[in-house]
Queue: 2 jobs
Job 1
Amino acid sequence: MKKTNVFGVILAGGIGSRMGNVEKPKQFMEIGKKPIIIHTIEKFVLNPQFERIIVLTPRQWVKHTQDMIRKFILQGDRIDVIQGGETRNETIMNSINHIENKYGLDDETIIVTHDSVRPFVTHRILEDNIRMAKKTGACDTVIPATDTIVESCDHKFITNIPDRSCMYQGQTPQSFKAKKLRDVYGALSEEEKAILTDACKIYVLKGEKVELVNGEVFNIKITYPNDLRVAESLLGGDASC
Amino acid sequence: MKKTNVFGVILAGGIGSRMGNVEKPKQFMEIGKKPIIIHTIEKFVLNPQFERIIVLTPRQWVKHTQDMIRKFILQGDRIDVIQGGETRNETIMNSINHIENKYGLDDETIIVTHDSVRPFVTHRILEDNIRMAKKTGACDTVIPATDTIVESCDHKFITNIPDRSCMYQGQTPQSFKAKKLRDVYGALSEEEKAILTDACKIYVLKGEKVELVNGEVFNIKITYPNDLRVAESLLGGDASC
């Protein structure tokens, strides 16, 4: 195994305690005859810079995810499927602890964290993330806001319309020097942890630099039922993805 | 003609001086075998609350737009096609002046302004706009931000990640009591006019109330080439639009 000290971290949900009787998390829905999460994992597998790819899923879906990987991915031996935490950030912490225990962690270890339901991430975006995280220590993938952004804190009247030229829509990957991320997160109070659901926001509030990486309009998160149709049309499309 | 004092204002571009040799503005691209702008106009035509529907296009596209309306829309007699202005807000002012000259304007005259390239606006959204504009004087159609919103004023590092629960993505329609909008806009300096490209922002900066109307995720603006495919899949889809 090549020791690159760069790890893919694919976030596919936490312990799943609040999921009730939902049939199947959306990462297992199929587009182009494969589960969405498989498309996503493939993008990481194709990049030799990733020493390992850690996939974090709800407890009860670990085995199913492993089965899917065995079924669809030839080079599945670089992938570990483990259980996520109670929140997105706890899930990321699980991945860092796993890397430390199994592969060793130092100040330069990079994690590239990515939503399992963003299968259209590109090689270029992954490369830019790795390069920028090595250089700056943290980066976030964004696109310029296409819509006007409107602020309303009472959810009834507009309180502000910020200058659109400063506004971006966050995507993933978000990439970090893993040890530092764990240190900064560990120093938060329980209250802060509850509020700071975005890993990059932890850095911003602590005055740490997070550099921007250009995303792509088509690097969509499959969230709504209609996104599945959009995703099918993106898959059937030209070489842009 | 029913005197409702409510007017649809469909924004399809200004004088077009900066368009160079572009072949066809995107509102004339076809989805479901009809130009996008026709789909949009139809949504307004189907609502009897609109006394007239004013369509504003670049000068050189006025005739073509009229031809398209004659070809595709049976009740085309409620539609006026006129030339837009140099900016989005100037185009809106053209519509207000046109209404004043041809149909009369009073304090209660409502305009429902809408992007010509948002064909998936619904009857419910139009009704809510009319009701809210009558009540509050101004409203903006928005959806809760699906992505995390990231602010970067230097376009290199994140400067802020605002609380997502306060953030919305602006769509259209934006609806106003027309006379007041013209008054508020008219009181701006030339400098302010150049900066305030969003009509609702004029109100917000002047301390005037703008109420939120719930949009729809599928009320997309057709901006990028890929949006055309998305739009086709929305058209072919279920009854949600």
Job 2
Amino acid sequence: MSKKSIRIAIDCMGGDHGLSITVPAAKQFAQQHPDTLCLLVGDEAAIRAQLNQEGAASGDWYEIVHASETVCMDDPVEVALRRKKDSSMRIAAQAVKDERAHACVSAGNTGAWMAITRYVLKTLDGIDRPAIATSIPNQKGGATTVLDLGANVDCTAEHLLQFALLGSALVHTVDGKDRPTVGLLNIGEEIIKGNEVVKQAAELLRASGLNFYGNVEGDDICKGSVDVVVCDGFVGNVVLKSMEGLAKMVAKMLREEFTRNALTMTAALVAKPVLNRLSDRFDNRRYNGAALLGLRGIVIKSHGSADAYAFGYALQRARFAVKNGLLEGTTQYIEHLRQSFAQADVHSPLSSTSNGDTLSA
Amino acid sequence: MSKKSIRIAIDCMGGDHGLSITVPAAKQFAQQHPDTLCLLVGDEAAIRAQLNQEGAASGDWYEIVHASETVCMDDPVEVALRRKKDSSMRIAAQAVKDERAHACVSAGNTGAWMAITRYVLKTLDGIDRPAIATSIPNQKGGATTVLDLGANVDCTAEHLLQFALLGSALVHTVDGKDRPTVGLLNIGEEIIKGNEVVKQAAELLRASGLNFYGNVEGDDICKGSVDVVVCDGFVGNVVLKSMEGLAKMVAKMLREEFTRNALTMTAALVAKPVLNRLSDRFDNRRYNGAALLGLRGIVIKSHGSADAYAFGYALQRARFAVKNGLLEGTTQYIEHLRQSFAQADVHSPLSSTSNGDTLSA
């Protein structure tokens, strides 16, 4: 095995573009980070061909791990999990399980990647379900971590508490924030005070020892009122996609207005440096790489449509999580919370065992 | 009573700014629409003083309807409903109930306005709960009607169907679209297929005779994939506020980037006409005025922070709904749906009677 200190398993076959994106992204990433070994997982011959095409076949930056199958973007979860036991996703997750890699990354089918990593790696003790977390840029120049983004449609208060824990551990270890603030996504006090689950979750959060800020509303995400925003997966997914839709519309309107006629095109030329800076600040490729938290291993999901630049950010996120000890940090958070609830004489909302094995394959 | 054909009751005391906004907005609105009479509801002396200050005391454009109490922005719903029976909100709603006005508008406390109008006016036959609908500008240059935006936290499939009906009736009568398309807000198929309520609602929608497009995702709001997007009030509220937060952040970043230094400020000067057009397209004041649908009367809610320009749009929305027969249109839709379900031999998801009287005051 290579002596490089960080090893990342990359599903080279996943995503809308597969090898043509993942391999060059991995190569560039490895150049930037000589301490990191890339395990290129997928069809060996196809990976070799791509490496040759990139002129990247030499060097000690990679190892190829053959996988005979590929999960397609539209494969049902059942097919991915039960019929494709030698998929590049499965083998990448297995590499983490077997401690051949510290983290795994895929741009493939989200549902399949979640199911496979959960099946192979299982959840951490105390955590019922994994959650998807991502960073959304905020007005303060930082980013707000939001979870869950679609792993769990129906959540209990206990699940929301566990998401708060996972998000706090992520921001604490990866962003180095001492006591990340947590907000519970809710609707305007002036209308109604939220549903039962949210109210119960607020009570648990108050007893948890986490740095609970209280309820927040949708606009607090971009305001950056808190470090971590917690919600169920249905709400999180819809919110994220709505915001993506709006961001795309704004970009389109900017283009339309600046290309309307000769005059506006001149204005665009003059304003170009400003507009470029603006689009850099908004470039969501820099925020690519959602974390699947709560598993016994570091798992990153890249956007399916990521280009090599964006996929590189997902790889960096994986490396950063390994380097900063995300797993150890999360385990410490779980222990800390158990103690808080014991001291407060409250029944712990953390599950007593891992239950990632409820799925069978 | 005045011979003007349209009469709108305006809660002059509501909103963050009260009389100083509502009275000048009403005056300008009445000038633009000589067929419309404004019933100015609130403290008579204070309204007269404001009219004098505006030099608007003469003319047949208004009548004052005295109300001795005002619902404050932070009054609990119970206080507004049970303790302030002579509030300007209550009297404005009562004017619609008594057929002194065709519609009522308030910029006050949303929860109170909902509770009061529901108590005074009751829901339409077939409708269990009123819903809040608004228009969000979309990429196609039109607007997408989204509901519910916070009136109902926990919804059944039947409620979602009723929202689809109310939204369709709104778009049909007010925007003049023949068979508005309806989308059910859901999360990416690739992750999970939504919760039970959403699945059941989809079945009801397919049997309804409404123009059901199918599931849509968050980004379809700005894409303009459908005319009407239906969701529960928790999701709708969070989505709307998240998008508002993002829009504000974009505006702030634009300002920041263009005022960074002398060079960028020159660029801003050159680009000013373009940026102005852009900010016009984004000016959410033009979309002010959410409709409370499903009641036996036309009820509009303005943003609490609306200025006179924005409040004028809320008044126009009320007038337009009256002029286009929103109530009659909605009743026809309800009848049409009852027939569809009867023909399909499906138990009607429309309630058999109005139940707006479950609240007591």
